[in-house]
Fold each of these.
Amino acid sequence: MTTSTVDLETCDREPIHIIGAVQPHGALIAFEHATSVVTYASVNTAAFLGAAPEEILGKKIGDVIGEENVAKLLTLPLDPSSPELLKPWFLKFSGADGRIIHAECLPHRNDGHIILEFLSPEPAPASIWEDELLRREIISELVKPGALVELAAASAKMIRDVTGFDRVMIYKFAEDKHGEVIAESTNRPDSFLGLHYPASDIPDPARRHFTLNVMRSIPDINGEHVAIIDRNGNVAGANSAAPLDLTYSKLRAVAPVHVEYLNNMGVGASLSISLITNNELWGLVACHHYDTRLISSSRLRFAELLGGTTSALLQSIENTTQLKKSIEAEKAAYQIEQKARSGASLRDLITDQASFLMELIDAQGLLFVSKDTVVRVGCLPEKPLDFSNLRDLLVDGVATSSHLSSLIDMDDEQRLMAAGAALLDLSEDGRDYLVFLRSHFEQTIRWAGKPEKVETKKEDGTVRLSPRGSFALWREERLGMSRPFDAIDRDALRILRRALFALNSLEHEQAALEAQKAAEAEELRLRHAMLEAARASSMGELTSAIAHELNQPLSAVANYVGACRQELLNSGVTIPARAEQMIDQAIKETARAGDLVHRVRNFISRGDLNANYIDLKDAINQGMDLALVSNDLPRLQVTLLLDSGLPKVLADPVQVAQVVLNLVRNSLTAMENASEQKLSVEMAEVDGFARITVSDTGCGIPPEMQKNLFEPFHSSTPRGMGIGLSLCRSIVEAHAGRIWAEATGNGTAFVFELPIQGGFDE
Amino acid sequence: MSKAPEQFSVYVVEDDDAVLHSLCALLNAHGYETIPCVSAEEFLDVFDPALKACLLLDLRLPGISGVQLQSHLNDMGVNIPIIVITAHGDISIAVKAMRDGAFDFIEKPAQADHLLEAVKSAGGLLFNRLPPMPSKKVVADRLAKLTDREREVLDYLLQGRLNKEIADELGVSRRTVEVHRSRIREKMQARGIADLIRMVS
């Protein structure tokens, strides 16, 4: 006897399919398909085949049941199908003792063997259950209900009618594999309806057998195990070198754990039929009898048929429910998509459709988060939640939990309002998402016995491998949990998510497009502003230059007239009063002309300095771009070397751009006829100044022009009035900088410097 | 008109031939010896430190500018009185020149009286006769007559700010600033900014 703690999970590892025995209500023999030699036999063959195992083992199967029957056998469908259906084969042959044996045989092939299971044929002729008409009537009763529970109840009742068991229950398995009795038909006073059974009640190997072998009949729980032996007389069980695989056997003996489990419940006979939908074990029809109960094969087969029909109907009802929900989700998605087409934003759509969406998902709260907006609808906790742990559960962009507090630290209010959550990821970067919150769901689960207490202690204190001893009602209050999100919910969520994700991506794309457009418009505006400023300042420079040029002769006139008068006085000439007056008048007029010029110049001002701390690179690039827009030099190569380590400089970006624009334009003009057309613009820091150099490989500057290069009206190009460089000088000097030109080996470099540290008023 | 009592020369540095020639003619007519130069470079060539002279300097010159020449002379320790000639609106440059030790400045087109007065004063300086300068008390009395706003405008003027800048700074029209300026000139009995700078600093 083991002393270690064990529970029913030990059973998960128990090899119940090689138990090496059958139940006593039938006999089993198996022969190798290839050699036809009988290799296994249960020790009770004499009662069913008229021959003891030692008379059969090692013989050809034809010698046991007759060649004719073997030929027939091999034409039968022998491979297990899923779901398995009983395929009885009625045969007769001469037994070893010479009497004619009538047998009902369930043959199947497994692992190179053909296994024959023999049952006592029904003594009476075919019972009324064989009546097709009756079957059809019963089945038409089953087809009527449209809801799961009604169908299950009808099915339970019918199966009890057919089998005569004391109690027929229908279990439905939840996602965590625990079972709930959703329908019951019984002649007993107590009821198990609504009780939950822990997942450990049906260990995984048993669960596997339920899907592979849908029908399991145990007429006597405590019936003797009838050993299966091989040709050496050894039991072909788990300890044998060559155990016989009884996965598909109908007679397979009952595992001791299961015997104990059923005994603990007081059950004497059991019959179970698996309910399988969409290839999953959906539930189980469990029939219990409180005495032994062997029912005829035909009833068994009919019960099986009823189970199969129930399965099919369940599947159809489930599929319909799922389809309905999916259609609703698709509808919701479609509506949102339609409305999105009319230009509504995702935010508005979700706000608008929130209550509809919440109803669809059966949620009480909705939260929509995107990078610049949050929408909150319904029951939401005051304090926001961090959903990052829930994100870890994302599958296809959807994560759900009905027990959020097991993932996230939450306060009481949060636990109440956000007991469960479904998160839909709406962007690649995870910044946009939609969350449905389900409130706390007051749930009391009535367990058929406390699920944890599965081990029992014997009087001597040792713990024994034991299924649950108590099936007394045990209530569990589930706290902090919401109604679970099931597969149907998740399908609907995925449908919604797909549509919302697509809309969100579209919205982001459009936003990016609009931002780009706005940026382009802004650039265009800047360009226009610069051109405008360039025109204005050229005009101002022109006026200023004209004013200067006019002032010079006006000064000279005034000086000459003044000098004249003095020379006359010096020579002793008495100036007539009228002449004296006219001299004064002439001088006054020059002053008036000067004043006029001054006022015109003030009127057309050069544009004021609008200085800011700016990145010179941007201004330079702008000037460059503008100058290159109208470039038509065929071989132009542009090199731009701008040191990005320079600090920001107090300067007027538009005016700096103008300087660059003028210099680059001059360079381009100078290179019009050059074979090499290389323009280079560089910026570097030199002794506290930002030095910008615009060099070209153009025609250079003729020596006679160099002196007056920056004076107005000394055009360096054949076109233009010669204002450009003068303007450049005005701008640079207004920035307390300087500008000059240098002859390079193969062209000209114009250089200007702007002080990096405050170059304005001292 | 009387001749200059003590003979001294005037270097005239001006790039415009007509202006240069006419200035020299005017000064010659009033008895001054003139040495015309079309550029700062030429001035440096012909400059004779032994000669008693003042310098009439146009600030806008090709090549070495007037401002550069002034600071160059300062660096060399040349102590020649400089009268700066500026175009209209170059007040800030003129103020800088004054700060750097220029003797006076004149706006173009220059009025003969103003010009001759300045040259005469420079001559007086050369012969250790300082131009008449109101006493500190007189200046203080005059300053006391200014309104707060006029004081404010004066401060800006002394910083070399343009009317427009002052107007923006004070949030008034340019016209108002001009009115303030003329009141300040009246009350301070100053001919122009040069006088104001001299009085107040």
Amino acid sequence: MSDLDKAIAQLRACRPIPEAQVRELCHKARELLIEEGNVVTVTAPVTICGDIHGQFHDLMELFRVGGDVPDTNYLFMGDFVDRGFYSLESFLLLLCLKVRYPDRMTLIRGNHESRQITTVYGFYDECLRKYGSANVWRYCCDVFDYLALGAIVLGASNTMSPNPDSSETESDQDVEIEVCNADGQIMTQFSRQPRGRGGRGRSPNGAATSAISNGIGPAVPGGPMNSGPPGSGASGYSGGSVGNPAGAVLCVHGGLSPLIDTVDKIRLLDRKQEVPHEGAMCDLLWSDPDEIDGWGLSPRGAGFLFGADIVRVFNHRNDLSLIARAHQLVMEGFKEMFSASIVTVWSAPNYCYRCGNVAALLELSEDDSGLGIFARSNGDVGRSDGNGGNGPRGVLMENDPSEPKSGPARRYRVFQAAPQDSRGMPAKKPVADYFL
Amino acid sequence: MMAQSVPHQTTDKKRVKVYELRNNDWFDRGTGFCTASFVQLEEGQPKEPRVVVESEEDEERLLLETKIVKDDGFQKQQDTLIVWTDNGVDMALSFQEAEGCALIWRFIDGVQQTFQGINGGPDDGLSDDLAIDIPTAIQLPPAELGTLLELENNMRVMSSTANGRDALAKAIMRDDYISKLIPLVEMAEDLESLQDLHRLCNIMKVVLLLNDTSIIEHAVSDACVLGVVGALEYDPDFPSHKANHRLWLNSQGRYKEVVRIEDEQIRRKIHQTYRLQYLKDVVLARILDDPTFSVLNSLIFFNQVDIVQHLQSNGGFLNDLFGIFADPNEEQLRKKEAVLFIQQCCAIAKNLQPPARQTLYNNFLSHGLLRVINFGLRNIDVTVRVGATDILVSMIDHDPQMIRHTIYRQIQEKQPPLTDTLIDLLLVEVDLGIKSQISDALKVLLDPTPPGPPEARGEFIVGQPRGRSQPTIDPQQDLFLNHFYEHSAVRLFKPLIDLEKRVEMKFSVVNDGVFGYLNDILCFYIRQHQHRSKFFVLQHNLAQRFNQLLACKEKHLQLVAIRFFRQLVVLQDDFYIKHIADKQILGPVLDVLLRTMPRDNLLCSACLDLFALINKESIKDLIKHLVENYREKIMALAYMDTFREIVNRYDNTQGYTAQVDPYFLESEDEVGRRPNNSGSRGMMEHLAVDPAQEEYWNASDDEDENPVRPTPDQTATTNGSSTPKPLVEYTSDEEGDDNGDAVMTPAASLSSEENSKENQEPVSSGSAPAVGPPPERLSEKRRREEDEDDVMDKLVHHKRRNSSASASNSAGNHSAAALRKKKSFGGSRDASPNGPGQKKIAISISPSIKNSAAVKSSAGGEEDSK
């Protein structure tokens, strides 16, 4: 068993690893992360997760629901630390897994991966308590500076992959969205719908989530619903035709920036720095979608609010079918907005041990039609210029471009906080000695 | 309302028979479970108080659902009966147990009481802020195991209204109820009655979350504290767990007393403060709500103020404390603990008001704090070094001038100044935390900017920019800086300077971190020290030294070098611009880029960022230098907008063509998009005619005393080490784009015809909706930390704060200050580090094609941004 595996085992038991080991881990992680672009290219299948916020036991629950590393390919969209009482163990475990399985684990930066924010919202304090000095906090903050700012998921399928946990064997190719509970049972399914029925501005996954929040059990077995809920954003102007590679999915913690009109512009940022108070890098980590036109001031004091039109133009220009982001608590764990052109994924159940929300992760399955992945070259620079016009994309562009891209098939797994028995009473580590 | 404090008061179901009077006979509707609660029937409607009975046979069936209204005349008869009139029908609830009846009755009675107090609609009476005179004196049942259930229910109900909470708090203090409850914990433990223990825990939670200062103070008193936390060890939320709070708080030796504190009361306060912190962080951490959180925090704060005030005014104590360091025979352990004691004092002092803090530090200094710091910084034990660094940094944070005076005095007295100690420590220290704190200290101590009053440096900096351009340096500061550059600077930057003699760029993992810190410090000095730092950089040829780092294998060291060059460029100071050109700095950076290029990594982004900056700010000397010296390399990169534009900028302004230059159009467009941007220059240039452009370049030639020779390979030789050969051979564009280019730039293979089509497609379809310019930011707003709007606030009524929300700890302040500085100097760096439209187009060296392509792309770009 290597040291790294030992560290992983220790962290899985929610026990911090010694400072020297953290230092070594952070150095390794730095070497790894420096090789990543500001926008990491990830190929489907991938499981996308939102905020964790130091809720270690719920992170374990997430791995239980989503599958363990390296069996499942994970993409975490930042905010690993702060607020929860186990930021340290959570982040170090994720980092260990990143170093151990670099290709199966993608970590991007959230607004809480910052010196300034962590000193206020708990991570600094936690490190100080657990190690008696802020060194580990400093090591971690150095790693934060190297984290990528976003990720592009390529090769996601338009067709829902068969659900291994479901009793249902046939997979319906019309299914665009599937919502499962923690045990993998299908709760609701939505087929592809002509776009525009719902229109933007309505609560997008309202119907899907009401099914969840009402606690109504698994949807009627015997077939998916044929009609998507109004405003569910269930897409599919192409009629759900098989094999059309879905466009790419951009993953970023916060959202868009008025200074970034193409994904490639993100690649030009010198990201190795504390999250600035303004500018493109700040916006990517701080912005929120909102029911407005154009751009608006963010009540957070950093980043912007952006409306459906912004998302539409951006997705069109960059050949994206979907933007996945985190950053905002959604009680149902996920929330699709703007005709399913953007989704918020939240992975911290019962946030702060008291919000009563459920969490979700988003699974994008692999496109096995052989068309999707080769539509783009991988990771190099002339990649997603939005008007490159190679092969299949060029064909797609012939369609009325005002239609948003057909979204990839999305399976949301909704889960609750880890059962109380699986963990002790969450609390901070008390100060051991005192003089005053 | 206390949302999370206790389970909802009405979840307990009570078995009951429902009767209705029919023809003078009580008709039995059935048996079920009764609940009484506020129910919201429709969204937006106020909640209604309702009594509901669910059938015990069929949960779905309701035997009774009635709204409590004023005229129903609810009455309680005997112990188990409640009667009333529902729409003219007499009804009765017959409870199996008196307790259940009491509970429901209490709810009904509470609702009716509010009816009596007001004339308005019944629902209004339920809000907290309504002052109704409930009889303030309430009688709590005797504290016995048998009455716990009743007590718990009573408390839940009462704690749901403001008046109830008031009355409850009074009753608890009046009867010293906590002391009565405490024996019950051990009794229940002896009986192993988990149910009672859970009840006691719930009761104790309610008591503490009543949020009454005197109750909390009483709860952490010596007499009560163990019993209180004992009760809280059995949390019904975690039925299979038992906490060990008593064990923790009772264990001896947590309190370290370096010097005996004679005052009994202060000693007690110290213990109480520790317990309060334990309550806040551990016992109540999960369930703490905002009001209780602030009550705990303020109790802790005032205790700490008292403790520190007492200590600093206690001369005997201070003599004893600092005497420890004067005594050579004193054992190391005691000295160590004394350092840690002072460290904790300083940590507490950060929360004090500045004048009180000042007095404390003055008293410490006069008793010999510097000796302590000196002792600590050189100590072999890392905890002591950390402690001493912390003490020093907290004083520097408070008032750097105080420390500067001391150093100045040391210089006058020909003693080794503190700065030298710090420098030595920075270079040899292995502990990263100490290193980074010292690095920060060396910046702050050598910041010549006149500091405002200490308290103004924190929050009120906005709108009163510190005079950076011409700081008025007081003579003392001037001497200090002179001394530093004469004696200490070489010592500090020795690892960099020593690179000159190095052939191989290999460093151990332990050592290579130092370059990052030195770069940080040097960048800061370059911004702040004007001519002194210029001379220093020139004298020691530091740019060339950083250049050497580019040859390292470790990418983070290459990054350090690129950051340094970026700093030089950002300043847009003629001296440094010329220095960059003279030292042929940018060639090796281009090499790094070419070497890395098809890969998309951090190094690559950092290089691109640097060149995008040169392009965006159109630093003419550097553009000229780049194109004249490295034309081939730039052309090899010209599939990226930044480099294409750099070449075009040079070519166009030389007057070879009268065509309209594309980026002038685009930069206009940029101006429209970003009102803050310094785009005026672009517009001026747009208006300029050819003669002016010629003059533009002539003028710059005149400034050049040593015109650089256009030999791109020169860098390789001046370096002393050979430039690594690029991994991939890149053919230049003239040679066609069949192989090498195809790999690097897929888009480059497109014909320009296709390009223009692609560019314009969004336009022709007319689908791109108008996207307005982003609103202007209120940049000062975002500096406020509280603006990190927790998402929670919107969703949960009670914001829960983390314990460190008393945010003024050093790291926070420090990085905030650092950010401010970065911001003012970084200027527009983050505004748009990249050029305008990033379209990939084929570049041919033929001017006519080039220009047509450029024009098309600019047209596309213009449309796109509409």
